[in-house]
Structure formats: structure tokens, C-alpha cells
Amino acid sequence: MRLLLVKVITFFVFFATNLQAQQAPQLALGKPVKDTLALKLDSSKTQVKEFGNQSIQKYKEQKEFQYGDDEPKGLSWWDRFWRNFWDWINRLFGQRESTSSGPSMWPSILKYGAMAICIVLVVFIIFKLAGVDFKWFAGKSKAVDVPYDESLENIHEISFEDEISNTLQKGNYRLAVRLLYLQTLKHLSDREIIDWQPNKTNVAYVREMQGEKGEEAFANLTYQFEYIWYGDFPVDRTAFAQIQQSFQQFNGVWR
Amino acid sequence: MEQEMFNQRTDLSELSRAVEQIRQQLGKIIVGQQGTIDLLIAGLLANGHLLLEGVPGVAKTLSAKLVAKSIAATFSRIQFTPDLMPSDVLGTAVFSPKTAEFQFRRGPIFGNIILVDEINRAPAKTQSALFEAMEERQVTVDGKTYKLEEPFMVLATQNPIEQEGTYRLPEAQLDRFLFKVEIKYPTLEEEIEILEQQHQQDTQHQLEEIKPVLDIAQITSLRATIKALFVEPKLLAYAAQIVNETRQNKALYLGASPRASLALINSAKAIAAMAGRDFVTPDDIVKVATPVLAHRVMLSPEKEMEGLTTSDIITQIIKKIEVPR
């Protein structure tokens, strides 16, 4: 704190002195003073000394006076590449005099271009850290881009006959009903009666079936599926046979 | 015929009858607004508090009054004003010269159905008086805790347009409302019907004709029935995914809380029971997702500037998540 105070006082003293020194000279009014200063003519002879070429050469040969970068020996091609690259960057952005006949514009363009890119990059990082959504600059985006997660089970890739057969062998009638329902959705989707989307509820498909052939039957199949799959209602062999028949009848209409 | 294959595990006949009676009661005065009426009933059955939002004159207060009148329970109305104090809501200790002691005088919060009219006209200080009552169903004053009687339901109304003399509800309070029910303008046909109805008899007379159809014991019993409904574990995961996505979505500044997940499942159960099912389907969750979540989340400033609403984002989130099937 004390040091800071000393620094501040020093600064102000220096600033005040400097300011006084810079003030314009004022005219002093009064009695003129006689100038006592007189110039004397220098009559001594000047002896010009010159470096001899031999002396210069002698100094140049001494290692202590060689300031250039030595090419280190034993560098790999990778090290040489990077050395040349940084040399090139230094030449490009360094205060090097142009050796060509006229001044080239390219170094300046590249220099300021690189500076502009750096500034944009810094601004981008700041905005990104601040959580600014850049889509906003592009105007109103009513529909937010929603990444679409593919269904774990694509109904178009399931071999329903095999899967249902395997499930029935294991006695899992509940799962078999689910496969029957998915198969029905695939049939309807293949015939473009419904628009299959993994995010749609069954009620949405029932709505899409309105006015179509088998509308009521599909609503019943959906009802059965929901009770068994979501409601965890038990289903035995007899009940499954009845349900399977309903599904087969419905799917038969669309074959 | 196929529908006879499944016998309900839970007897929902009493619930269906009660729901139908309340629908009829509300339908006597409220024209149209079927979605709103269903949410009001679902909120009542799911043991939740409701925030009714709409422009002036769309029967927000009337709807709340009708729900209250349909139940044989104590009813209090608190008109929220800028100078309302917490003690005006909760109650205060009053000195009794007879006993020379301070006695607690209960405020209007001590009732079964509480209508908080124009809730956003009171400042945060008064709003926070409701926190404990709404969540823990109790009131603590001067170090003493008073339990509120069940059923306890807060029906609050607010106007989304008016900014003069209003305060935005604290997030902690918004989170305590099960649904925010948005009451829209009636259609042309509905408005004509309202005029015809009012031409014959004014609302005050109509309200006097409304008789309670449910008592406290029935409500308690119906709520217990709903709580016991079956929910497939995959659907619990589905509801959790929806809520979790509100926390990940970049369009939202504030996501929904775990309380919102519970609210989503409880209200989906109520919707399922009202549909005559003793289990929940994905459609039940989708139906209540917007009323449950839209008021609990906050839009990012950029999306707000784009003119999007929290309801738009919830709809987009639902479209993003795969329905368990």
C-alpha cells in the first residue's frame, strides 16, 4: 500500500515537472540583457578513420561475432519441416524488408486476415461460453432442430414371423401380442395408411385410421395391446389364440 | 366383444360416476372448455393445486368456484392484493385480554378448497407464505405447526397479460402447482350459447343451484384409488426421460424438478382413471405433459425473443422421445 502511494506521488511529481517543462516560453518584459555568449571557430584538423576490409573479415571469422542461427545438425525431416514453417511465419509477419522490386500486398493481407480470424475466434468462444445460440442471428427458427434418436427396434427390420414363433415357444404370450401389434403397425405403415414415428402414441395411430377401412377393428386391437402390454393383464394360450386371430383377420384385410 | 376379455382389477365405477357428476355440474354453467374441465377434475383427483391462467372474463374464478361448490367442504376465498401480508393469509396471534395470553387466530388458508384470486398481485413476501401450506399441508406460526385439514387444494387464478401492479410468481411456488390450466377464449358457437344461457338466468342464480356431489370422505377414497393404479416401469422411465430432457434442452434456461416427474405420473394416473382404466398408457402422460411442465420450466432469453413459449418446447421434447411400445 505504501509502495503504491510512493508510486502515485512519484508519478504526479514527474507529471507536474514534465508539464511545467512543456509550457510555452513566456515573454519577459523589462530591461534587455546583454548577450555574453560568443562562438569560437574550430580550426583543428579532423582525421577520418576507416575500417579495413581485412579487419572486418577477421572479425567475421570469429565465432563470437557470428549472430545468425546455426542449422543444428542431426535434425529429422519432421523437425526441419517445423523449423522451415516457423521461419516462413516469421518472414511473413516479421518486419522484413521486401527484396522484390515492388512492395507486395500479400503479407499484409495474410497478416490482417489472420488477426481478423483470431478476433472472430475469440468472440465466438466468448459467445459460446455465454450460451448464446447463434441460430438467433439467422432469424426465427420456430421448429427447433430436434435430433432424432433411432428406435432401438425398427419395425421395418424385425422378422416378425420368426420372432413371434420364438416367443411362443418360450410361452411369452405378452411379448407375442406386442410383436403382433408392431407387425400390424408395419403393415399399415407400408401401405401408407399411418405415418410410423417412434414418438407417436397408439392413440395417434387410431386417429390416423379414422375414416379408413377397419378403423374400429384397429381401435380394438390397440385396446387389447394396451391392456396386455401397459396394463400387465395376464394372457394365456387360449386368450392369445383369440387375440392372434383378431390380428390375422385385420392384417388379412390389408394384404 | 374383445373388450370383455379384460376385467378391471380396480373398481372404478364410483370414480366414473363422480367424474360424470362433476362434469355435469360444471357443464351447467361453463360452456365448452372440456379440456379445462377434465384438467380441473384430474387435479382434484390427483391431490394437486391448480393455477388457472387466462385473460379477464374467461371464467377462471367461476371455474374455481364451481369446483369448490361441487364438493361438500369448507371454502375460502383470498383476494390477493399488493398490500396483503403473510399474516392475512396464514393467521396471526392476537392478545386476549380475558386470558392475558396470545391466541392464534386462523387465517383463510385453513380450509379445504382455497380460491386465491389474482395470485400474481401479491408480492413475493406474501406468495412465500403459501410455500409450506401448499407442499407440506401445514402452517408454522410463532414456532408452532398447525396441520391443514385434508383435502387441501389451492385454486389460484392469474391474468397473463396485465403487467401493471403484478409480480411474477416465484419458481418455488410455480413448482407447487400440479397444473397450469390455460383458459382460452370460447369459440363463436360457444359464445352464442353463453349469451343464450345468460339471457335466461344470470350466473349468480346459476351458482346457487349448484349442489355438492362429493364429500370429503369420497374424495379421500377416490384419491387412494388413483394412487394405487398400475404404471408399467417403462412408462416411469418415459416420464423421467421427458422431465430429464427439459434439463438438457438448450431452449430452456430452467428445467423441471423431480417434483414435476411425480406430478406427471400422478396426474397421468388420474387421467387414466377418468378414462376407465386402472393402468397408465403413454397417451395419458403426453396429455398432461404440457399442463404439468410448461409453468415449471423457463425459456432461454433467445427463444423468448423468438416468440416461442414453454408449451412449444414441451411439445418438441415429447416429439423427440420414443414412446415405449
From TrEMBL, chain A:
InterPro entries to which the protein is assigned, alphabetical: TgpA-like_C (IPR025403)
Signal keyword on record: yes
Keyword terms, alphabetized: Membrane, Signal, Transmembrane, Transmembrane helix
Any Pfam family matching the protein: DUF4129
Signal peptide: 1-21
Limits of the Protein-glutamine gamma-glutamyltransferase-like C-terminal domain: 180-246
Annotated transmembrane regions: 109-130
UniProt protein name: Protein-glutamine gamma-glutamyltransferase-like C-terminal domain-containing protein
UniProt source species: Pedobacter xixiisoli
Organism lineage: Bacteria, Pseudomonadati, Bacteroidota, Sphingobacteriia, Sphingobacteriales
UniProtKB/TrEMBL annotation, chain B:
Positions of the ATPase AAA-3 domain: 49-179
Pfam families on file: AAA_3, AAA_lid_2
Molecular function, one GO term: ATP hydrolysis activity
Keyword hit for Cell cycle: no
Keywords, comma-separated and alphabetical: ATP-binding, Nucleotide-binding
Residue ranges occupied by any ChlI/MoxR AAA lid domain in the UniProt entry: 245-317
Xref: InterPro entries: ATPase_AAA-3, CbbQ/NirQ/NorQ/GpvN, ChlI/MoxR_AAA_lid, P-loop_NTPase
UniProt key word Transcription regulation: no
Domain of life: Bacteria
PANTHER family reported in the protein's UniProt record: MAGNESIUM-CHELATASE SUBUNIT CHLD (PTHR42759:SF1), MOXR FAMILY PROTEIN (PTHR42759)
Family label: Belongs to the MoxR family.
Record-given protein name: MoxR-like ATPase
Native source organism of the sequence: Pedobacter xixiisoli
